[in-house]
Amino acid sequence: MNLALSTTLQTSFADAVEKTRKALQEQGFGVLTEIDMRATLKAKLDVDMEDYLILGACNPPLAHRAVTIDRQIGLLLPCNVIVRSDPAAGGTVTVEAMNPELMVQVTGEPALEAVAEEAGTRLRAAIASLGDAS
């Protein structure tokens, strides 16, 4: 099983972030958190890196179903989606979402399979739409 569901876009970083937010919203996900790794590492460690944004995406009905099954699943929520520039190829941006099937593997809880499957279907559709949009 792959760790991530991903696509590569030929666009600007800002455009990729905007398209990613829209694609997630169309699949019922809101962005609860945002971590700008580039800015954070520069501020804390004075380290330079490419544009790298972590979006914490959540689909409330799916999250509710998951925590109803296993309260500890919150440790794996929200679903992280990464938007990152490729420093070796200007104008290339990678968008990756955590594969929700990891929830089932990590917990060993078979009741989470249906939730992970639906989350995976929605995240795959969001990622696929980005490829269509670029």
Unreliable parts = none
| Number of structurally distinct domains | 1
Question: What oligomeric state do the depicted chains represent?
Answer: single chain
* Structure annotation, total helices: 5
Helicity level: 40-55%
Gross geometry? globular
Instruction: Count all strands and give the number.
Output: 5
Distance between the termini: 26 Å
Kindly report the average pLDDT value. Answer: 94
Examine the secondary-structure arrangement and name the CATH architecture: 2-Layer Sandwich
By secondary-structure content and strand pairing, the structural class works out as: alpha+beta
Proportion of residues in extended strands: 25-35%
- CATH H level, superfamily name: TT1751-like domain
Tell me the radius of gyration: 15 Å
What order do the SSEs take from the amino end to the carboxyl end, as H and E? EHEHEHEEHH
Q: What is the fold named in CATH at topology level?
A: TATA-Binding Protein
Please explain how this structure is put together.
By secondary structure, the chain is an alpha+beta fold. The protein has one domain (4-133): TATA-Binding Protein. The protein is 46% helix and 26% strand. It is built from five helices and five strands, in the order βαβαβαββαα. It has helices at 13-26, 37-45, 60-69, 101-107, 113-133, and strands at 4-10, 30-36, 52-58, 79-85, 92-98. It has a five-stranded antiparallel sheet. Strand 4 and strand 5 (92-98) form a beta hairpin. The longest helix has 21 residues, at 113-133. The mean pLDDT is 94. Residues 35-100 form the DUF302 domain.
